[in-house]
Amino acid sequence: MKPFNQYVAMICMACLTGVFTTSCQKEKATQQDTPVSATSIPPAKMGVLSGVLGTGRTVRDTIRLTAGTYQLQGVVYVDTLDVIRIDPGTVLKGIPSATASEPGGTLVITRGAKIEAIGTQVKPIIFTSDSPTPKVGDIGGLVILGKAFTNRSEKKIEGIGGVPPASILYGGTNDFDNSGILKYVRIEYAGFILSADNELNGLSLGGVGSGTTIDYVEVYKPLDDGIEFFGGTVNANHLVVVNPADDGLDFDEGYHGRIQFALVVEDSTQANISTSHGIESDDHVQGAPVAPITHPFIANLTIIGLPNRTLATKTNFPPSFAGKYGVAAQWRRSSEFSVYNSVFLGFENGFLLDNTLPGSGTATGAQEKYRDGISIIKNNLVHAYNIPFHSINPLYPYTGTKPYPDAPDNNVGYSNAVNPNADIRLVNPFNRGVVGFFLPRTGVPPIASPALTGGLLVGLPSGLIATTYRGAFDGNPVNNWTTGWTIFNY
């Protein structure tokens, strides 16, 4: 039998002696249910989850976390075939690591396992730090590994070293793979840097398939990226990323899913040494295109950067980060993209079509994909203190004559070194103390920018919803989908 944790063992012993009424009986003919309850024990004796949960790879267990508070000690694995079912209102507190070589409390859903974390608007499920003074990187966050296609075949997820007691491989041949459900889930103070370019994020998704549901998920103050999609096809809606140390959203290794209704709010106090972007997207680490090609389909995204150019170009951060801010969205290494009805503001430069290979006129870089109509930027608002739309390919410099336009298909680019909100009229985008600071302005008569209400209604790819507005919100406070389950300041 694999180790579960001492707390579960105590509960099962209590079941045998009749002290607890919660059933621990195993039914061999059906999926086994291993209930864990924190409601009948003192807060000082919270349940501690550690090691590999479940009774073995040949037995399908359901690990049930009833509403309460639990601790995650080290990297905790839900084994192949098993399901972890987490009740609304449950809090999982990761114990910070005592060494720099391993992450704090982390939950890993291994390939073939499932997570069913279904919170509610008033009772979200929270992953956070067990420290009384929490800080970024206290915990390793949530990792979900699936069987969908990537362009790097089978590989180990980043950020976990040594010899893990369970598989950390991801990727496969089933784009419709189902790793479970995340709904009304918040992940705080997560991330871990094992070595350069080898990190855990707030939410790390490796080869996760489209059968998985990700809806209403917030990542708050992650040490690395907010959410990184390592290949796979999972779709995600109603996402919030607040104060990522690195990128808000990161796509690579052939990810080709849909993202709609998402908000990224940058951190004005720190940036990553690898340069912090709103979005960073790559196809393959070697630069040349490898199928499947990374191609996120994005609609109704709002990314809020820095309130002024001085901050947006700041590089004098503490040595532990020693980073700098980048662009609203960097598309590089042959990545493709389709972006509609979205709003980007508060960066030195907006959309960057980056090419790590020499410009050859073939479909090898972001510029060529865009020029050839494979990638699409349509019906967006892009603010930049310097250049809203930018290419660094020397064959197509920003000031030169190019075979593609800078701002096609009703995109509106703004360059305003004083106040981006003068053109893109959000309530108060850089003031977290204002409720709904990220919403479009409203009033009588209406004072919202007409462009914010000019949503693209036709021509969206299958699976994306047409809206009458740009950005993640329609401006009506009643329809603010972040209400009740998110945080923007502690």
Brief sketch in words of this structure:
With 490 residues, the chain is mainly β.
Write a structural description.
- This protein has 490 residues and is mainly β.
- Strand 14 and strand 15 form a beta hairpin.
- The protein has a single domain, classed as Pectate Lyase C-like.
- The N terminus is likely disordered.
- The protein is globular.
- Helix content is 4%, strand content 31%.
- This is DUF5689 domain-containing protein.
- Poorly predicted residue ranges: 1-30, 36-45, 358-363, 398-408
**Which CATH first-tier class would you pick?**
Mainly Beta
How much of the sequence lies in strands comes to 25-35%
Give the count of helical stretches.
Answer: 3
What coarse outline follows from CA principal-axis ratios?
Answer: globular
* Oligomer description: single chain
Largest β sheet strand count, sense and barrel closure = 27 strands, parallel
* Helix coverage percent: under 10%
Number of strands: 31
Helix/strand class: mainly beta
Q: Nearest-angstrom radius of gyration?
A: 23 Å
